[in-house]
Design brief:
By secondary structure, the protein is mostly beta strands. Helix content is about 5%, strand content about 35%. The protein is built from 4 helices and 34 strands. Helix 3 links the parallel strand 24 and strand 25. The longest helix is centred in the first third of the chain and has 11 residues. The two termini are about 40 Å apart.
């Protein structure tokens, strides 16, 4: 099966829950906005890839799922109906959810999951955002097949801060497993070992010609010579950061995580799970009598196994009407392949991320908090849990793999945290005493301590409304240093600094960029290093912060942020019985 391009109109590892509450209007109604209705039916669908067919959990029978298109200021009402045996919830990744925390979607954080035969209406307004975001399941590993683009166009009459593209094309990267991903992670959690890796990467659901039995399952993008295309790229892969390049073409980065950046050219880009990147592709002035691979493969920093394969789509030029008699048959044109960085090229990763700067213009300012009310230092990394009695475990030295923030491995509650807070039932559900810094400091990136056992609990950080926060996230060498893409729900943040080794609170802040730092919702903590972010806790709710490597979230690399004071109607509070 071939998939053509679809076009748009032109115009956990670490979990931290933040709670910030104040009485405000739940759904502001901006002028000239409209309400858009979508219906998501979660159903089983037979999907065949790599000559393997399996019953797959999908939205509306599509893999990937349907795209949502809206404009800044629009209100979205999305009814999700669960027709499968799995519990379901949907997260609208990157949407600020201003005063609409019940619609954020992570199961047992802002809602109970949607049970079989039940439904839930996600009701939120897009405030002050435009660009590329995405949606995905937010329970267990179901997001391996339940995901899709969420495209936010500027308000009518508002141009992009770059030349208007001829066409817009979403490119969404994913991972395909021949086995059921739910069975894979369930087995890993039981044995304590690492889960089996994926069998292929995909572009818009298709693995492409470099995999066995997949020449017909290739995403092909047809372009015209001398045109500019806006590629809206999303990394929906479960566990892998990806390098991406188009052979013999230069890309101009203009937007990340639905925030405009100062444009810069690159042959290759790096995109972590959860992140989005908009780039301009300027095609060649004439038909090049060639085809070009659009390729992606992983950036790897950890010591575990990984899917060491490459996904490719094909960029094809349309023949001009007057030159139908080309010297080359379209099927015999040469295909050029891009040169991607080595799998562990941290130097490229660092140079690429350092080029990302906010536009910081009068129309799109970078409102970096200059005064900091609360400072935090969180370590993020792996660890272990003891093996149960009478069980043989497959983790390090007969233990079970775990992951933690500041050595606290997050225990998912059985009652949604926002619901527990709202109804004053937090006792026994969570504790609001997450440490502001590691209780036992050590040389975080040096020789690791002998004791790798984590503590376990459901602990949150509680912030007063409008607190300005500086958070340092420090990787550790416990069971190996590794890059961790951290996603914060409910907020964007500014990446004011990053470096390698241990963060130095006396020297490193002097190098912070407080003028035009990139603004994101997901950032990579460098392998063996640290990253500093700042944000204003101006969004009431309970918010999840976690590593977007799904295996790390499964192991407990997450935390919660709470910002108390907000009250909402009881009818909004419950999606199904906890």
């Amino acid at each position: 099966m071939k998939m053509g391009v679809y076009l748009l109109p032109s115009p956990a590892f670490l979990v931290v829950l933040f709670i910030s509450f104040v009485t405000l209007s739940v759904h502001p109604e901006p002028a000239l906005a409209i309400t858009r209705h979508y219906k998501f039916d979660v159903v089983l669908q037979n999907v065949t890839r790599l000559c393997k067919t399996r019953s797959t959990v999908t939205v509306n029978g599509k893999f990937p799922g349907p795209r949502i298109v809206a404009r800044e200021g629009d209100r979205l009402l999305i009814k999700v109906v669960n027709h499968v045996e799995n519990n379901i919830s949907i997260h609208w990744h990157g949407i600020r959810q201003l005063r609409s925390g019940w619609a954020d979607g992570p199961a047992y954080i802002t809602q109970c999951p949607i049970q079989t035969g039940q439904s839930y209406v996600y009701n939120y307004t897009i405030v002050g955002q435009r660009g590329t975001l995405w949606w995905h399941a937010h329970i267990s590993w179901l997001r391996s097949t339940i995901y899709g683009p969420l495209i936010i166009l500027p308000k009518l009459g508002t141009p992009y801060p770059f030349a208007k593209p001829y066409k817009e094309v979403p490119l969404i990267f994913g991972e395909w497993f021949n086995a059921d991903p739910e069975a894979i992670i369930n087995q890993a959690m039981q044995t304590g070992g690492g889960p089996n890796v994926s069998d292929a990467y995909t572009i818009n659901g298709f693995p492409g010609p470099l995999y066995n039995c997949s020449a017909q399952d290739t995403f092909k993008m047809k372009v015209k010579a001398g045109k500019t295309y806006l590629l809206r790229m999303i990394n929906a892969a479960l566990n892998d950061e990806l390098f991406f390049s188009i052979a013999n073409h230069t890309l101009t980065v203009v937007d990340v995580d639905a925030v405009y950046v100062k444009p810069f050219d690159t042959e290759t880009l790096l995109i972590a799970p959860g992140q989005t990147t908009n780039v301009l592709l300027r095609t060649k002035p004439r038909h090049p009598n060639a085809k070009f691979f659009m390729s992606a493969r992983p950036y790897v920093t950890g010591q575990g196994t990984f899917d060491n394969s490459t996904v490719a789509g094909i960029l094809e030029y349309e023949e001009p009407p007057k030159t139908i008699q080309s010297s080359h048959s379209p099927n015999k044109l040469p295909i050029y392949k891009p040169s991607l960085p080595p799998l562990n090229d941290t130097s490229f990763a660092t140079k690429f991320t350092s080029k990302l700067r906010s536009l910081a213009s009068a129309e799109f300012p970078a409102n970096v908090p200059l005064k900091v009310d609360r400072q935090f230092l969180f370590t993020v990394g792996l660890g272990t849990n003891p093996c149960s009695k009478n069980q043989t475990c497959q983790g390090p030295n007969g233990t079970k793999f775990a992951a933690s923030v500041s050595n606290v491995s997050f225990v998912m509650p059985t009652k949604a945290l926002l619901q527990a807070h709202h109804f004053g039932q937090s006792k026994g559900v969570y504790s609001p005493n997450f440490p502001t810094s590691p209780l036992v400091p050590f040389n975080y990136t040096g020789t690791p301590p002998n004791n790798t056992v984590v503590s376990n609990g459901t602990k949150l950080v509680v912030l007063p409304f409008n607190t300005s926060v500086e958070l340092i996230m420090q990787d550790t060498s416990i069971l190996g240093a590794e890059s961790h893409p951290l996603h914060l729900h409910g907020f964007n943040f500014f990446v004011v600094g990053q470096g390698f080794g241990n963060f130095d609170p006396k020297k490193d802040p002097g190098n912070f960029n407080l003028v035009d730092p990139v603004e994101r919702n997901t950032v990579g903590v460098p392998s063996g290093g640290w990253v500093a972010i700042r944000f204003l806790a101006d969004n009431p709710g309970v918010w999840f912060m976690h590593c977007h490597l799904e295996v790390h979230t499964s192991w407990g690399l997450e935390d919660g942020l709470g910002c108390p004071g907000w009250k909402a109607s009881q009818s909004e509070a419950v999606s199904s019985t906890s």
